[in-house]
Design brief:
It is a single chain. The chain has 284 residues and is of the alpha+beta class. Helices cover 68% and strands 7% of the residues. A 5-stranded mixed beta sheet has the order 3-4-1-2-5. Helix 1 packs antiparallel against helix 2, helix 4 packs antiparallel against helix 5 and helix 5 runs antiparallel to helix 6. It starts with a strand and ends with a helix.
Length: 284
């Protein structure tokens, strides 16, 4: 199962279902379990379609012609011009409301990140996942790509949930620690309750930070395992090339190299990293 991400300059939305984003542009990547849409920072050009022009321009013309025939030219021009201005002012707000409805319906049940630290952290996790996918071609049959894509998508979905929780708790803590709350009188016990809630929120934030760090570390280990295997394989190939070049002069008393043992060892390293990532997802 994949995930869908939509983002603009201030908001990142992560969903299990497809996101309909007006004027969104898909982001190309090596793996397909993550579908990302980005909204351009520049506003979309105004709608110049025929229906919009007709809706704004035709009624004023008809009103003007009718008024000019029965009420006079000046009244007709005035009535038509006034209606045109009213319609021209109403069309953009209607379109904006319609766009918001489409956006809201498309992200129902999704996770929304608006704070800069959380959005940056999610971007960092996506970048790590992309780097992991870059190692798959070189790993060949060692990695089941569809299964690995599912694992990566699940890892990002869980990380988005942790980040959404951290953003929520950060907002709660900011509300509890307002400077004007510091001078509350302890007579009715409100101050004690405030401090208790502050401590509980900080403890919850600490637990979330630990969870997030563990999940990010699992992604990094999966990336490093693949890259380590690739480097070690390239090193073995270089050594084997040197051994072939020097084979005519090899001392029979020296033990022969065992590439198969090295391959088994490093294959196990890669597989262990993906099993660890899978185990961390099941434990969440």
């Amino acid at each position: 199962m994949g995930i869908y991400v939509a983002r603009d300059r201030t908001t990142t939305v992560i969903s299990r279902t497809n996101l309909r984003v007006p004027d969104g542009r898909p982001v190309r990547r090596r793996w397909s379990a993550l579908v990302e849409i980005r909204v351009p920072e520049q506003p979309a050009p105004a709608d110049r379609s025929v229906p919009a022009v007709v809706a704004v321009g035709l009624p004023p013309v008809l009103v003007a012609l009718f008024a000019m025939r029965f009420l006079g030219v000046e009244i007709g021009i005035f009535a038509g011009g006034l209606l045109f201005l009213v319609l021209w002012a109403l069309v953009p707000p209607v379109r904006r409301r319609r766009a918001r409805r489409v956006h809201a319906s498309s992200v129902a049940g999704a996770r929304t990140l608006t704070a800069a630290p959380e959005r940056t952290a999610f971007d960092r996790a996506v970048a790590t996942a992309d780097r992991i996918s870059e190692t798959w071609p070189a790993l060949g049959d060692l990695v089941d790509v569809p299964e690995a894509e599912t694992l990566l998508a699940e890892a990002l979905w869980e990380i988005s949930g942790v980040l959404a929780r951290r953003e929520e708790l950060t907002g709660v803590l900011a509300g509890l620690t307002r400077p004007d709350f510091a001078g509350l009188s302890p007579v009715d016990g409100t101050a004690e309750k405030l401090q208790a809630h502050i401590r509980a929120t900080k403890e919850a934030l600490s637990a979330v930070e630990i969870d997030l760090a563990a999940r990010e570390a699992s992604l990094r280990r999966a990336e490093e395992a693949g890259r380590t295997f690739i480097r070690e394989r390239e090193l073995r190939e270089a050594i084997q090339a040197a051994e072939r070049s020097l084979s005519a002069h090899q001392d029979p008393a020296l033990p022969a190299a065992d590439p198969a043992a090295d391959l088994a060892e490093h294959t196990q390293l890669v597989l262990s990293a993906y099993r660890e990532l899978n185990a961390s997802l099941r434990a969440s």
